[in-house]
Amino acid sequence: MFKKLRKMLTLGVVASMVLAGCSSAKDPAQSSSQTEPTKQEKDEEAKHEEAPIVIRYGSHVASEEDPYYKDPVTGEYVMDEESRLIEIQALEQLKEEMNVELEFVQYTGDVTEVLLQSVLSGDPICDVARIWTNGQGTILGQNVLQPLDDYVDLLGDNPMPSIYGHYYFIEDSPMGRPLSPLVFNISYLEEVDALKENGKTVYPTDLYKQGKWTWSVFKDYLAKIDAHFTNSQAPERPEQRIEAYWTDYTEALVQALHANGSSIYGAKGLEIDTPKTIETVNYIGDLINTRLLKTTLAEGTSSPVYSEQAGAFERGESVFSNIETWRLSYISPKLAERGQSIGIIPFPRPDHMAPDDPEYVLSCTPGESFAVLRGVPEEKVGVAIKAVRRYWAICSELYRERDKELGVEEGVDSWFMNTFDVFHPEIGQDMLEIYETTKTPVTELGLTTGVYWPFMSIAGDALYGFGTSDYAIAVEAKKGDIVQKIEEMQTLLSFDQARDNIKPVIEQVEDKALVFEVGVDPQSVDWKTYFTAKDNIDGPLDMTQATFDTSTIDFNKVGDYTEGIKVSMTDSAENTRQSQFKVTLYDPNNTTEPTITLKADYRTLKLDEDTAAINWKNDFVESALDKDGLDIKATITADLSELDTSAKGTYNVPLTAVDYAGNSVTVIAEVVVE
Fold first, then answer.
1. How many CB atoms lie within 10 A of CB 629?
2. Where are the beta strands (DSSP E) in 330-388?
3. What one-character-per-residue DSSP string does 154-180 give?
4. How confident is the model over 108-141, as pLDDT tens digits?
């Protein structure tokens, strides 16, 4: 069921979508052989004698959406049988009503590249393009989407807001379902004595209904949780404690912005430097500085590691988190296996804001989007919009009928019912009531306008001390860059010409290691032979046009230079990519044997495990270093001559590392097969 519900969410199905122009079913009374067919029936019959109109529906996961798609290896249908039959029925009903067939088209690569290439070639890959979350801004900046202003009457009663004066997206506005809502592990809350009054847990839902769910209350709530779990051990990884709030700070920040009546880019335009936004960033910073909010960052940056918090929450390593709605559908049963369940609560409001303030709303960030590509014939655009929206509506109707047969109450969001513990005796009904009364559709347009991540970069750098830690100062200094980006976008979209905005890709030549003897003259190295560059439109690029910056390297000192060499390349559309590559300088006169340190508790092998797939250097080796501390772990090789995974037992596996000067060392790992 979780897969079916995710499909409903991902497709943006809205139950109220019934479009004009869709024919109704025949009246059985008019089907009598003794009755002359009506003009409407004759027209319907004539219509279906015509060849059906084919609407190509492009997607990065078409294999999961096409009910006829079979896995090329197994020959089995990818979609589960119940969903497959429902969606075949929907396709057949669409053809009956509109004489339209949907053809699912799988993208052959990155959506931002595939769509651009097809439009620039004058042959759009599809009529309706599904665009994955975070891709909207990039694709909008390519100007490959048709404005749908002339078809706004086909976009429903609650269309996505216009962007830069035009309508581009087909789906309805999000209806109160945040992309990454604030969720919590109910079972963990019930373990914290400090959250109890008269022996009963005070839940976030209690505080919300009492009008007390504010920023300061949430901080105090997290502090009590943090104190309780300070010395805890998570269920799957005992070395990891249970955190009070492990999340992606960008998700928390956008939810907090809307709870404070602000946004990144919304109905009032750009709001990144308003007093409300500054106040919000400072609040999230306070949670980070007091170690009540944890985010896993990419090393040396303020960029969060994608969805790290979801894995932590699933493994029972946090109490609160922000997780995508579709992902929660998979996490919920995982918690259930441990006897735990998930709760949901709106992000708290600032202390100065009243509980009933109309500006206290949920943030509804668009997920996947759907648009019509430039180059699709005018006569096909209206049909395409009608067809996909009608298809979504039919799917919704059929799934709703299925849910009704399963006993799901009419009008209740089945995704909500199957994700959260609505039957919890203390807060189940409260969660339902709060969810139903907070369905305020406020769309955050930061992603679709392309300013979401530039804003998060400014905020993240301030929050984590990369540059000034004062967000107000940082945003004042950098807002101009975002304003310029918006102005450039507006100018671009005023023309009909598509624009290549994809930077080239720079890669290191696989068999050319960036390892050199200390003292080497960088001018003597032919750097261009160590790299290749390729552009999505231009193809392979001439490396003689690249620039190489080695200013961070001291060529007279042994070491691993992580920032190393910076390689820059520009394509014909003036998109410039700068990539960094690690450079290692070693002592060629070194004669000292290197060292290998095995992990204290390396893993066992499974019976009949494929030895070729074992990652010996990561699963078994803690470190491998030369005498100067240079990392040589990548050189680890394993001698498998004695290992036999077809029989249980303990086997000696020699692991060997060789340093850059040619010195080697071997240690024996006693490997257990069980």
1. 11
2. 342-345, 369-372
3. GS-SSBPPPBTTB--B-SBPP-S--SS
4. 999 999 999 999 999 999 999 999 877 888 899 9
Dihedral sign for Cα 198, 199, 204, 205, please: negative
In whole angstroms, how far apart are CA 166 and each of 90, 152, 160, 451, 494? Answer: 31, 10, 10, 17, 10
Model confidence band, residue 9 (pLDDT cutoffs 50, 70, 90): very low
Structure tokens at 582: 């690690």
Closest CA to 324 of 313, 334, 315: 313
Give the pLDDT confidence of 546-590 residue by residue, as tens digits. Answer: 999 999 999 999 999 998 999 999 999 999 999 999 999 999 999
Q: Which residues pair with 370 in a beta bridge?
A: 130
Q: pTM above the 0.90 mark?
A: no
Torsion of CA 2, 5, 10, 16, to 10 degrees: -170
172, pLDDT greater than 60:
yes
Which percentage of the chain shows pLDDT scores above 90? 75
Our measurement of the distance from residue 196's CA atom to the centroid of its chain's CA atoms, rounded to an integer in Å, reads 36
154: nearest Cα among 47, 17, 16, 24: 17
Amino acid at 407: G
CA quadruple 138, 139, 142, 146: dihedral sign: negative
Q: Which pLDDT score is estimated for 408?
A: 64
Nearest-5° Cα angle at 218, 212 to 219: 135
Structure tokens at 529: 């032979």
Is-contact 195 224, C-beta < 8 A?
A: yes
Does residue 261 sit in helix, strand or coil? Answer: coil
* C-alpha span between 158 and 175 (Å, rounded): 9
DSSP 311: H
Residue 236 tokens, joined: 């799957």
Q: Which helix (H) or strand (E) holds 332?
A: helix 325-337
SS3 content of the chain, % helix, strand, coil (to 5): 35, 20, 45
